[in-house]
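lol forgot to send this yesterday, sorry. struct tokens for the thing we talked abt
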């Protein structure tokens, strides 16, 4: 057992991106923050499933070319091999929980030629 406060970790990109509180051995648990206009590149996981629970703000999460507009209180479950792209198209930051499992050291496949659906 251990206890960790979110303030003990830093976001990957300074004031935004993922902030992992747990990285294995069974699951990954992160707080994710994106400022207005920020995004996270399209990718998929071959083994891990990914869940996002929106705590504050709004975010658009595109899954296999379908736009899903989510707000505080919404949860989205993304299966392995589903391509997903996240963008904060709104005027306030979004803060959400990301839960991925089962933990894999490397299981992110980028999709560099992803086109955002209209």
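and heres what i got for the seq, position by position
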């Amino acid at each position: 057992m251990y206890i960790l406060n979110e303030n003990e970790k830093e976001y990957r990109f300074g004031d935004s991106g993922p902030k992992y509180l747990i990285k294995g051995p069974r699951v990954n648990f992160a707080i994710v923050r994106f400022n207005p206009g920020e995004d996270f590149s399209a990718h998929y996981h071959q083994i891990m499933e990914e869940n996002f629970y929106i705590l504050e703000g709004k975010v658009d999460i595109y899954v296999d070319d379908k736009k899903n507009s989510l707000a505080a209180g919404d949860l989205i479950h993304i299966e392995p091999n589903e391509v997903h792209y996240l963008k904060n198209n709104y005027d306030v930051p979004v803060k959400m929980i990301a839960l991925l499992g089962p933990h894999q050291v490397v299981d992110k496949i980028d999709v560099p030629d992803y086109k955002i659906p209209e």
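The first strand starts at residue 17 and ends at 23. anyway ping me if u want another try
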